[in-house]
Write a structure and sequence with these properties.
Shape: elongated
CATH superfamily of the largest domain: FAD/NAD(P)-binding domain
Structural class: alpha+beta
CATH topology of the largest domain: FAD/NAD(P)-binding domain
InterPro entries: FAD-dep_OxRdtase, FAD/NAD-bd_sf, Rieske_2Fe-2S, Rieske_2Fe-2S_sf, Wax_synthase_dom
Protein name: FAD dependent oxidoreductase
Subcellular location: Membrane
Helix content: 25-40%
Organism: Botryosphaeria dothidea
GO molecular function: 2 iron, 2 sulfur cluster binding; metal ion binding
Number of strands: 26
Oligomer: single chain
Number of helices: 23
């Protein structure tokens, strides 16, 4: 109870004073026990009735409440009514976050608010103050009833918490006569001490008078601000501090104008009306506390919707409930092409060209990494064009530039053709130096940037190096650096785009989509020699039904195979935050720094007042590093460069697969004739997906494509050149098998609720132990079904991650990311039940 804490110093103080010091009257000496009881009674006696600190304008206690029984019954009755009101309010629908967001809770931006915004603002302010009055009244009535019932206070001392609304025609009257004194009395006592004892300002002076008011409200501002932040409200969004600091200024202005108003307006009634409006205006800026938008409601089987426990910023405007839904495959079907893994861009191109397509998704559509990306569309490659030219040759580098530039434009063309509103826009990309001029490695880095810009320019990329690049809003440390500016890039809302394309596919006669249909194997059947024969592909599913097709495309992030291609990639976790920035204050562009691992930034709309800066990076290998510190690192990095940044509303992570030569694998699966793969996105899965749609469709139709050889999964030259790196990677992968001898926890009791860990008992195989929020324990096999690596617990995403090849499993042990195709085996009945219920939900 806040008044207890606020009055704690007064309890100690008052209990050590004599009776005269307390009441100001000559009374017989009292024992220390009596004095302590009197001090405790002050917790209820908020207005200090009967003491020398008694406040002014005390509301009279109703006659019906002067007796102890009458007081207790009436106050408890009022408390019950208040509780019923608050319960009804809490059970009502949540507010519209677009209308109640930061910025709209203040009248400062009145000119930019719509009529609806203003109406919500007025009604919201009234509802806020009414709710606060009822909540405080509930608390006051409960505690005063307790103190009067126990004899620690008298009905007369426990005066009503609030005065008459009729006195609300001035700010001074509102705070001095109407609004409760439970909190402010503590502040007033401390303000008096500061003015009288610390500053020694002479009582009775104008300075003393206003200094007391200022310090009282200043302490109230600090208290309420701390309360807001403790309640989870962003410091930058909490409006209480500003509100309380404005009140003494309002009182000073009010005192200065009352005499003038009295001389100009002779009607007391009109003056009161003007006063009510004035008080309402002064209270208008106070927000119903602005809190970050709550995450969309998570279904019990959330792993079917997304790859982790966290939600990406895209759910802010595209919640999971708005995604298209597809039925489960329950019977065998046949088709021209079966696309496994919801490769939306591949399916789109095939359907557009007239092929009959069946699309299979293990969970719900858009539940994979595409829904957790940062939404960049870029021709910038991680290894750089210098690296591509060195590994593959100048011709390959030009093909990479050409194909990726086409993909960036094609995504926008598709969105336009289908009428998909996905925030697509062309922007420039800035590759910014991480070192300022004068720092030791600045020259080396700039020379590398110049070399990269020259190579990219030779490949057809429009790029230039700018010294001292100034980006709008980047006013902090590192905000003005040398950079390479790459034109012709784009940004968009990835899930709006994918959902829009899927809705178009749903309407096509030559398309069928199935969700919750996990594929376990893709096998080519029959014989075909030099195009002669009868060869087909059989796609097997976990539930049993099969798909017979002429061609299959594994757009599964990782192919459904044991090693081969999988061994040529590194799997990494990448992190993102969405942090509020004032709308229009930050330049709309893509930003990449040159650190390793690097960080990247882009904008996406938030609400009428703010945008979101999506800040990503801090990559690390799956299951091999701590996942909990990355978000703070991203936030600190961005705030140092963009001081106007506000609250971080979203934090999430995703997974990327990097090839040894920074170019994806798109084309026929090695040693296959009719099975294609799309993998090795190098963090550019959206761009690669669009390229894959064209390459694979051309291959199926027999149309030569000059880009095909560059992304060919069977390429050898660049892989051979990267053998030293691959050897190092293999050593690191094999080193993860030492987890057979290690244990994340020594005992199940080491786990907190909602946590997991690998336990390696000496008498059995390693176990993955999960303790849910109620403390119930579930045991799974800790061995990844793919290559028997020992999984580890991902604290951020509440998942089991395999550090060997990157397979991931939900906390229930269900596979969410390959190359594994099945989940972790349950080791007790509770785990079996948990897994079954999750799948049936």
């Amino acid at each position: 109870m806040p008044p207890i804490h606020l009055s704690a110093s007064e309890i100690v103080w008052v209990s050590q004073l004599d009776s005269f010091s307390i009441s100001g009257k000559s009374e017989p000496p009292k024992s220390i026990t009596t004095q302590a009881a009197q001090a405790i009674g002050l917790l209820c006696n908020a207005r200090r009735v009967g003491t020398r600190w008694q406040v002014k304008n005390i509301p009279a206690t109703p006659t019906s409440e002067l007796s102890r029984p009458g007081f207790v019954w009436r106050r408890l009755g009022k408390a019950l009514l208040a509780y019923l009101f608050l319960d009804l309010k809490a059970s009502g629908p949540p507010p519209d976050l677009e209308l109640m967001g930061p910025g709209k809770e203040t009248l400062v931006h009145l000119g930019s608010l719509s009529a609806r915004d203003i109406a919500v603002r007025v009604l919201g302010t009234a509802a806020f103050w009414m709710s606060m009055r009822i909540a405080i009244g509930f608390e006051a009535n409960i505690w005063s009833s307790f103190y009067v019932l126990t004899g620690l206070s008298t009905p007369k001392d426990a005066s009503p918490a609030f005065g008459s609304v009729a006195k609300a025609s001035t700010l001074r009257g509102f705070w001095g006569s109407i609004w409760n004194q439970w909190l402010r009395i503590g502040f007033t006592g401390h303000a008096n001490f500061i003015v009288d004892s610390a500053l020694r300002i002479r009582r009775g002076t104008l300075l003393s008078r206003y200094a007391r008011i200022f310090f009282t409200f200043a302490m109230s501002a600090v208290f309420h601000h701390i309360a807001d932040v403790t309640a989870g409200i962003a410091s930058s969004n909490a409006g209480s501090a500003k509100f309380f600091l404005l009140q003494p200024l309002g009182i000073i202005l009010e005192d200065g104008t009352r005499a003038l108003l009295a001389s100009r307006v002779h009607s007391a009634r009109v003056r009161r009306i003007i006063g009510y409006v004035w008080v309402a205006v002064c209270h208008g800026p106070h927000p119903p506390p602005a809190s970050p938008p709550p995450p969309p409601a998570r279904p019990p089987n959330a792993f079917l919707r997304t790859n982790g426990h966290t939600d990406a910023v895209w759910t802010h405007t595209q919640p999971y409930t708005s995604y298209p839904t597809f039925p489960q495959l329950t019977e065998p079907v046949s088709t021209d092409v079966c696309v496994v893994g919801a490769g939306v861009s591949v399916a789109y191109e095939l359907v557009r060209r007239g092929h009959d397509v069946v699309l299979l998704e293990a969970r719900e559509v858009v539940s994979g990494e595409s829904g957790r990306t940062s939404g960049h569309l870029t021709s910038v490659v991680d290894g750089g064009y210098v690296g591509v030219a060195r590994a593959r040759g100048e011709g390959a580098a030009r093909v990479v530039a050409e194909s990726r530039a086409w993909a960036v434009r094609q995504a926008g063309d598709v969105a336009g053709a289908l009428g998909v509103e996905c925030e697509y826009r062309a922007v420039a990309a800035y590759e910014v130096s991480q070192y300022a001029r004068g720092e030791g490695r600045h020259r080396e880095e700039i020379e590398r940037l110049r070399g990269e810009a020259a190579e990219a320019g030779a490949c057809g990329v429009e790029v230039r190096v700018v010294e001292g690049l100034a980006m709008r809003g980047w006013d902090g440390e590192g905000g003005r650096r040398d950079a390479a500016v790459v034109e012709g890039q784009a940004a968009f809302h990835p899930t709006k785009y994918l959902c829009g394309v899927l809705r178009w596919l749903e309407e096509q006669q030559n398309f069928r989509g199935y969700a919750r249909t996990r594929v376990t194997d893709v096998q080519e059947r029959g014989v075909e020699v030099v195009g002669v024969g009868n060869k087909s592909v059989e796609v097997s599913t976990l539930a049993g039904p099969k798909v017979e097709c002429a061609y299959a495309v594994e757009a599964t992030a990782v192919p459904l195979q044991k090693l081969s291609i999988v061994a040529e990639m590194e799997c990494k976790r990448s992190y993102c935050i969405a942090i509020r920035v004032p709308r229009g204050k930050m330049e709309d562009c893509l930003v990449y720094d040159q650190a390793r691992p690097y960080k990247y930034v882009r904008l996406t709309p938030c609400d009428a007042m703010d945008d979101y800066a999506v800040v990503g990076g801090c990559d690390h290998k799956v299951g091999q590093e701590d996942t909990t510190t990355r978000f703070d690192e991203l936030e600190q990095w961005f705030r140092e460069r963009f001081p106007a940044a506000g609250h971080v509303d979203y934090r999430w992570s995703g997974q990327i697969w990097e090839t040894v030569d920074s170019i994806g694998f798109i084309g026929k699966n090695p040693h296959a004739k009719r099975t294609f793969i799309v993998t090795g996105d190098n963090g550019d899965g959206l761009t690669n997906g669009v390229i894959a749609g064209r390459l694979i469709t051309d291959e199926i139709e027999g149309t030569p494509n000059p880009w095909a050889k560059v992304d060919d999964p069977s390429r050898c030259a660049s892989i051979v050149k990267a053998l030293p790196e691959m050897s190092t990677h293999d050593v690191q992968v094999n080193n993860q098998y030492k987890r057979f001898l290690q244990s994340d926890i020594q005992d199940i009791e080491d786990l907190g609720q909602g946590e997991g860990g690998a336990l390696n008992p000496t008498t059995s195989k390693p176990l993955a132990i999960y303790k849910d929020e109620t403390g119930k324990v579930y045991r799974f096999s800790a061995l990844c079904p793919h290559k028997k690596g020992v999984v580890c617990w991902n604290t951020t995403e509440k998942s089991w991650d395999c550090p060997v090849h990157g397979s991931r499993f939900s906390k229930e042990g269900i596979c969410v990311t390959g190359p594994a195709t099945t989940g972790l085996g349950p080791e007790d009945e509770s785990a079996k039940t948990l897994q079954r219920k999750a799948m049936e939900a």
